[in-house]
């Protein structure tokens, strides 16, 4: 489909004898949120690193806005905004200076910075060194950096870690608003209530494979647990129960 902003075709990544990602394929269209869920070690972060170009697959291909990431064409990553789970920030820059650096690297208007600082409630600390930030402040700064620019695809790896309940709500509202504007999201999160609320598609990973995929409603039907907490649906499917009866 021409409207896919991300297409992953059969990617595999090995580390010695360990197959961290095993022939995974997925696609995300504009205006869609796709969430990856799975236990630690399931392969989510390794897959995300390949999607963002940090590491290369041993086999398979990744396309962002129709461009093959392996070709390393200038500008391909401009289609992408990324929040890594483990943020590495420039400790000796202030928050505002860091966002100006990001805007410069993305070749985008610095005028967006003030709005992101306000939205993510960083005004009081924007002139403090990033090295003095708490975990929550650092996460909000990383989210602001990911949002800056016109990237069509936003990849958010564990975006809720360190956020308070009110900021989680604001982030959900922001994701919904950006999705309605046509941006696509790939999100990895352990917070199943959040995943169910924001996602059009959910992929459950286990041992490097996507073992179940569908909308939250479809995954509930697959599990036979229509009225359970989505966390229980996840554990049921991740254990392999119900999947063999999906046809």
What does this structure look like?
- With 247 residues, this protein is of the alpha/beta class.
- Helix content is 32%, strand content 26%.
- The chain is built from eight helices and ten strands.
- The protein has helices at residues 44-51, 95-105, 112-119, 135-147, 165-180, 192-198, 216-223, 230-238, and strands at 4-15, 18-29, 33-37, 59-64, 67-68, 80-83, 153-157, 184-188, 201-206, 209-214.
- The strands form two sheets. The protein has a six-stranded mixed β-sheet with strand order 6-7-8-3-9-10, sandwiched between helices. Strands 2-1-4-5 form a four-stranded antiparallel β-sheet, covered by helices on one side.
- Strand 7 (153-157), helix 5 and strand 8 form a beta-alpha-beta unit.
- The longest helix is centred in the C-terminal third of the chain and has 16 residues, at 165-180.
- The protein is globular, with a radius of gyration of 18 Å.
């Amino acid at each position: 489909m021409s409207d896919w902003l991300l297409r992953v075709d059969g990617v595999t990544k090995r580390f010695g004898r360990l197959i961290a990602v095993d022939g995974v394929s997925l696609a995300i269209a504009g205006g869609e949120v796709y969430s990856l869920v799975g236990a630690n070690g399931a392969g989510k972060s390794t897959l995300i690193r390949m999607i963002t170009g940090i590491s290369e697959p041993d086999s398979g291909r990744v396309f962002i806005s129709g461009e093959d990431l392996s070709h390393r064409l200038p500008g391909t990553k401009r289609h992408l905004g990324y929040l890594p789970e483990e943020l590495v920030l420039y400790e000796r820059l202030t928050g505002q200076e860091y966002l100006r650096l990001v805007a410069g690297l993305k070749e985008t208007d610095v005028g967006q910075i003030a709005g992101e600082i306000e939205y993510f409630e960083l005004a009081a600390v924007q002139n403090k060194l990033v090295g003095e930030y708490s975990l929550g402040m650092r996460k909000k700064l990383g989210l602001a950096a990911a949002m800056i620019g016109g990237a069509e695809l936003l990849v958010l790896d564990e975006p809720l870690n360190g956020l308070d309940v009110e900021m989680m709500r604001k982030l959900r509202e922001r994701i919904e608003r950006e999705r309605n504007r046509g941006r696509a999201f790939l999100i990895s999160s352990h917070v199943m209530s959040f995943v169910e609320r924001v996602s059009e598609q959910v992929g459950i990973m286990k041992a490097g494979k996507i073992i179940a995929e569908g909308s939250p409603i479809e995954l509930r039907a697959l599990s036979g647990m229509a009225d359970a907490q989505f966390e229980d649906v996840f554990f049921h499917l991740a254990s392999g129960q119900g999947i063999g009866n999906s046809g």
